[in-house]
Design goal:
Number of helices: 6
Number of strands: 5
Radius of gyration: 26 Å
Helix content: 40-55%
Largest sheet: 5 strands, antiparallel
Strand order of the largest sheet: 1-2-3-5-4
């Protein structure tokens, strides 16, 4: 049977023979809390409202002035291409330069790189263009992955190796480091005695 002695700074576990000790150092650190499904959903809805407003206020009147067709159902129609370009440009440029869109700003969340560095163009393009295309095409169903994945990562977050976090909310995590103390026999083998 083993005896367990616990102190505030470190823990020592000793087995019955007393020949082997495992030292545990426990430290606390804080990491950004990942943004969940609903807060990201509402931020996205605000972004969609902003983009729809741009389409209604700026693009539709221009098409009406030049008597261009707005309701053409083909994917390559001028109105569809222009609004798609504005949609992707908005997400790419806002994420690259500000790490957040207007919707994310309102809710206090932002996009970070998993390696902790600044977001690169390749990362942003993969996340906001290729990743969103993959997520949007099958009826937006891949966005639901945010609710079920660790750290609330969407498909486009996995593709670009990014994470959406709260700006001012942190999770307290305990970091435990285990060290095995060497026995006299192991020390002799190491030193060549």
């Amino acid at each position: 049977m083993s005896e367990f002695v616990q102190t505030e700074e470190n823990n020592v576990q000793e087995n019955a023979s007393g020949t082997q000790k495992v030292i545990v150092h426990q430290t606390e650190h804080y990491e950004h809390k990942s943004a969940g499904f609903w807060i990201r959903f509402w931020a996205y809805m605000i972004d969609i409202i902003i983009l729809s407003s741009i389409g209604m206020i700026l693009i539709k009147p221009i098409f009406r002035v030049f008597s261009l067709q707005i309701n053409d159902p083909t994917w390559y129609a001028p109105f569809t291409l222009i609004t798609s370009f504005i949609f992707y440009a908005y997400f790419v440029l806002m994420t690259k330069f500000l790490n957040q869109t207007v919707g994310k700003m309102i809710f206090g969340i932002r996009v970070i790189s998993m390696d902790g560095g600044k977001l690169k163009w390749s990362t942003v393009l993969f996340r906001e263009w290729i990743g969103r295309l993959i997520s949007v095409i099958p009826l937006n169903i891949p966005y639901i992955a945010v609710a079920f994945t660790p750290r609330n990562k969407a498909i486009h977050d996995f593709i670009a190796d990014t994470l959406v976090i709260h700006e001012a909310v942190y999770d307290k995590k305990d970091k435990i480091v285990y060290e095995k103390s060497l026995t006299a026999k192991e020390l002799q083998e190491q030193n060549g005695f």
